[in-house]
Write a structure and sequence with these properties.
Distance between the termini: 94 Å
GO molecular function: heme binding; iron ion binding; oxidoreductase activity, acting on paired donors, with incorporation or reduction of molecular oxygen, reduced flavin or flavoprotein as one donor, and incorporation of one atom of oxygen
Order of helices and strands: HHEEHHHHHHHHHHHEEEEHHHEE
InterPro entries: Cyt_P450, Cyt_P450_CS, Cyt_P450_E_grp-I, Cyt_P450_sf, Cytochrome_P450_fam2
Keywords: Heme, Iron, Membrane, Metal-binding, Monooxygenase, Oxidoreductase, Transmembrane, Transmembrane helix
CATH topology: Cytochrome p450
Shape: globular
Cofactor: heme
CATH class: Mainly Alpha
Low-confidence stretches: 1-7
Largest sheet: 4 strands, mixed
Family: Belongs to the cytochrome P450 family.
Number of helices: 16
C-alpha cells in the first residue's frame, strides 16, 4: 500500500514538473519582443529555427526572398536578426557602429569560456587589444616591402615542395595551410618553421582539429546544457583539450620570450612587442586590458583567422583555374609580360597585373569563404527601418546576400573576373565587395591577406600550370560547412612550366 502511494505521489510530481516545463516553454515562446523584424517562418518551441537550417547558406538566401532584407530567427532561445543588403549593413555596422560592434558575452565560443583576445571580445578589452594588434601589424610592415620579402621567402619554399612532386596529384590543403600558417608564425614569434619540424607539425594538427571540431560543437552555443550529457557526442571535451594544448604551446612561446630563450627568433615579433607594451602600461600605472591570457588568445585569433581564410581562398583559386584554363593562361601571360620571365613577381607588380588582381577579387567574391560572418550583438535598444531590435539581440551580417545580389552584379553566379575591370582594363574596387566584412569589426589583417593572396597566386601561376587529375571529370565547385566554407576536398596536379 505504502509503495503504491509512493509511486502515485512520484507520478503526480513528475506530471507537475512536465506540465510546468511545458507552460514555461509556451509562455517563453509567446513572449516574443514587440515590433521586431518579421520571421520567415514560425519558430518551433525550444529549438527555434535551427531545424530549418541544415544548409544555412541556401536557407538564408531563400528566406531573404520571402522575408526581405531584415528578418528575425531564433537559434534556440536566442534572438538573431539577419541583415541581408548592402545598404542595411552600412546603416547598421558603419553608421550605427557604436551599437552594433559587440560580441556574444561569452565570445565566439561561449562553451569554452575563452580569454577574450581580439575576435571574441567587446568594449574596452576589444578596443585596446585590437588597436595594439593593428599597430603591431603595421609596424612590422603589413602591406609593405619588409613583410613582402618574408612572404616571398615562404612562397618560394612552398613552390619547392610542389616541385618535388614532379606533377603528381595532390590535395593542396595541408601544404598550403602549412605555408600560410608560417607567414603568421613569422609575425607572431619572429621565425618560420621547417615543414617537417615535429613541433610545428603538432601545432598544425592541434589547429586543424580545433577548426574541424568547432563545427561539430556548434549546437552547444545555443544549448549549452547539452554538455552535461554523458560521453562527448558534440566533441566539446575534445575541443577543449585541443584548445588547452594550443594554449600550452603558446604559453611556452610567451615564456621563452620572457626568459630570453628564443635566440633563434627575430626579436621584432608580436609576442615581444605585446609584452613590452603591456609592461609599459602597467609600470605607468595606467589601467590596461593587456595580459598574457589575452596575448595567448590574440595569437590564437591571428593564427586561426589568418590561416583559415587565406588557405581556403587559395584552394578555391586553384579549383577555379582548373575549371577556367583560358583564364589561367591569360594570367600566366600577364605575369610573363610584366616580369619578362626572368624574375619573381613582386608587390609592386600588382598595380600592373590587373587581370590577375581582378581574378583574385572574383574568387573572393564568388567563394565568399565566410558567407555569414561572425555574430555581432547590439549594446542598446535600436530602431532600424521602423523595427525595434532589443538590447543584446545577436546580429548576423548576411554577406552572401550582397555578393550574390543580381541588382549589384547582374550575373553573380557566373565566374567573370572582368566585372572588376573598367573599359581601360584598370581594376575597379567595388564598395559591395565584402570579403573582409565592413565596419569596426572588419578583418584586422586585410592588408596582409591581400599581399599574401597576390604573391602566392602570382608566384604559383608563374611557375606551374594547374591541371586536373582527369580532364574529363573536374572536381566539383561545391563547398563544405565549417568556420570557413572550403571547397569539397579534391586533388590537382601542379605541372612545372619550365
Amino acid at each position: 500500500m505504502g509503495l503504491m502511494f509512493d509511486m502515485e505521489l512520484w507520478s503526480v510530481i513528475v506530471l507537475l514538473i512536465v506540465t510546468l516545463c511545458v507552460v514555461l516553454v509556451v509562455r517563453g515562446w509567446l513572449d516574443v519582443p514587440q515590433n521586431i523584424p518579421p520571421f520567415p517562418v514560425r519558430p518551433l518551441p525550444i529549438v527555434g529555427h535551427i531545424p530549418y537550417m541544415v544548409d544555412p547558406r541556401k536557407t538564408l538566401m531563400a528566406w531573404r526572398k520571402t522575408a526581405g532584407d531584415l528578418f528575425s530567427v531564433y537559434l534556440g532561445s536566442t534572438l538573431v536578426v539577419v541583415i541581408s543588403s548592402y545598404d542595411l549593413l552600412r546603416e547598421t555596422l558603419v553608421k550605427q557602429a557604436e551599437f552594433f560592434s559587440e560580441r556574444h558575452p561569452g565570445g565566439v565560443m561561449p562553451i569554452l569560456k575563452l580569454p577574450e583576445g581580439v575576435v571574441g571580445s567587446s568594449g574596452e578589452v576589444w578596443k585596446e587589444n585590437r588597436t595594439l594588434t593593428l599597430n603591431l601589424l603595421r609596424s612590422f610592415g603589413m602591406g609593405k616591402n619588409e613583410m613582402a620579402e618574408n612572404i616571398i621567402e615562404e612562397v618560394s619554399a612552398y613552390l619547392g615542395e610542389l616541385s618535388k612532386l614532379s606533377g603528381r596529384p595532390l590535395d593542396p590543403k595541408d601544404l598550403t595551410s602549412r605555408s600560410v600558417s608560417n607567414v603568421i608564425c613569422r609575425f607572431l614569434i619572429g621565425k618560420r618553421y621547417e615543414y617537417d619540424d615535429p613541433a610545428y607539425a603538432r601545432l598544425l594538427v592541434i589547429y586543424q582539429d580545433y577548426v574541424d571540431l568547432a563545427k561539430s560543437s556548434g549546437l552547444l552555443h545555443w544549448f549549452p546544457n547539452l554538455k552535461y550529457l554523458p560521453g562527448d557526442f558534440f566533441s566539446h571535451k575534445l575541443l577543449y583539450r585541443r584548445f588547452n594544448e594550443f594554449t600550452a604551446f603558446s604559453d611556452k612561446l610567451i615564456q621563452d620570450v620572457i626568459n630570453n630563450e628564443n635566440r633563434d627568433c627575430n626579436e621584432d615579433n608580436f609576442i615581444a612587442s605585446y609584452l613590452e607594451e603591456m609592461e609599459k602600461r602597467k609600470t605607468s600605472g595606467k589601467p590596461t586590458h593587456l595580459s598574457t591570457d589575452n596575448l595567448n588568445r590574440c595569437m590564437a585569433d591571428l593564427l586561426t583567422a589568418g590561416t583559415e581564410t587565406t588557405t581556403t581562398t587559395l584552394l578555391w583559386f586553384y579549383l577555379y583555374m582548373v575549371h577556367y584554363p583560358n583564364i589561367q593562361e591569360k594570367i600566366h601571360r600577364e605575369i610573363e609580360r610584366e616580369t619578362g620571365g626572368s624574375r619573381l613577381p613582386s608587390v609592386a607588380d600588382k598595380a600592373k597585373m590587373n587581370f590577375l588582381h581582378a581574378t583574385i577579387l572574383e574568387v573572393q567574391r564568388i567563394s565568399n569563404v565566410v558567407p555569414l560572418s561572425l555574430l555581432h550583438r547590439v549594446s542598446e535598444d535600436v530602431t532600424v527601418r521602423g523595427y525595434t531590435i532589443p538590447k543584446d539581440t545577436m546580429i548576423k551580417p548576411h554577406l552572401d546576400a550582397v555578393h550574390f545580389d543580381e541588382k549589384i552584379w547582374g550575373d553573380p553566379h557566373n565566374f567573370r573576373p572582368e566585372r572588376f575591370l573598367n573599359d581601360k582594363g584598370d581594376v575597379v574596387q567595388s564598395e559591395h565587395f565584402l570579403a573582409f566584412s565592413l565596419g569596426r569589426r572588419m578583418c584586422v589583417g586585410e592588408a596582409l591577406a591581400r599581399m599574401e593572396l597576390f604573391l602566392f597566386v602570382a608566384m604559383t601561376c608563374q611557375r606551374f600550370k594547374i591541371t586536373p587529375v582527369d580532364p574529363d571529370q573536374l572536381p566539383p565547385l561545391t563547398d563544405t560547412m565549417g568556420l570557413t566554407y572550403p571547397p569539397t576536398a579534391y586533388q590537382l596536379k601542379f605541372v612545372e612550366r619550365r
